[in-house]
Amino acid sequence: MGNRNPLIAGNWKMNKTGPESVATAKTIATLASNSPAEIEIMIAPTFTALALVAEVISSSRIFLSAQNLYWEEKGAYTGEISADMLLAAGCSHVIIGHSERRLYFGETDNTINKKIKTAINAKLIPVFCIGESEEDRESGKTFSVLDKQVKKGLEGFSSTALATLIIAYEPVWAIGTGKTASKDQAQEVHLYLRNLIDKLLGNTLANSIRILYGGSVKPDNIKELMAMPDIDGALVGGASLDPETFGKLFNYLK
Ligand code: PEP
Question: Helix 18-32 and helix 243-250: axis angle, to 10°?
């Protein structure tokens, strides 16, 4: 097994203004100062809050992530945000291909592939989201859907280029629904994904890549999920909005 430090990541989605984000980040930074050093912590506020939050967490060990980016470097793309803008705002990570982006904003495996390329070229760490819908799962298509998302999303990359990539497995039916994949269901998919990475990109990357689980992760289920051998962290929506609750997540060992 490679050196896979656990990562607990909070995706705030379209919640919290700048000042609200600053207040939340301040509490998280205080809680993080007493948390186990080997557990990495990441938060993903909205674009308008990034630079403000960056200042608040600058002397903490919290990583700052954006929730999206655009693949072009600059130019006439009204409303879009480039990798350079994210770096200048203080981001080290960027979430790419979240199921809400795929569902509501027309993102495809192809646009996600371009975004991953842009992030990697800019030295931003991509948190690449994949996951099957309820319909996919019920019709026995979970693995074929994930297969396609991984193959297309990572098409054209060498294993060296993907050294920093983080995968987030988020079954769409478990996001914001209160339904969590059982620890065994999640482990089964994580192991499948690790084997798929092994097949596509080799053993070194397969052993070192972190695969996060996402979908209604809460303080009362995180410990059993994190105990599974192929689950390396959590991407958390709802339960990351309240700093005390999020603190319980990155303190799951306590
Ligand atoms: C998410 O959207 O990444 C997510 C996992 O949301 P929630 O924790 O609210 O299910």
Answer: 30
131-141 residue pLDDT tens = 999 999 999 99
Query: 145-158, pLDDT tens digit by residue?
Result: 999 999 999 999 99
Active site residue 170: yes
Catalytic residue (choose from 40, 98, 107, 190)? 98
**Residue 217 beta carbon below 6 angstroms from any ligand 1 atom:** yes
Class in CATH terms, 7-250: alpha beta
Scanning the structure block, which residue is given the tokens 């909205």?
Answer: 46
3-state secondary structure of 193: helix
In the chain, the N- to C-terminal Cα span, in Å, equals 24
Element (DSSP H or E) covering residue 137: helix 134-138
Question: Does ligand 1 have an atom closer than 6 angstroms to the CB of 221?
Answer: no
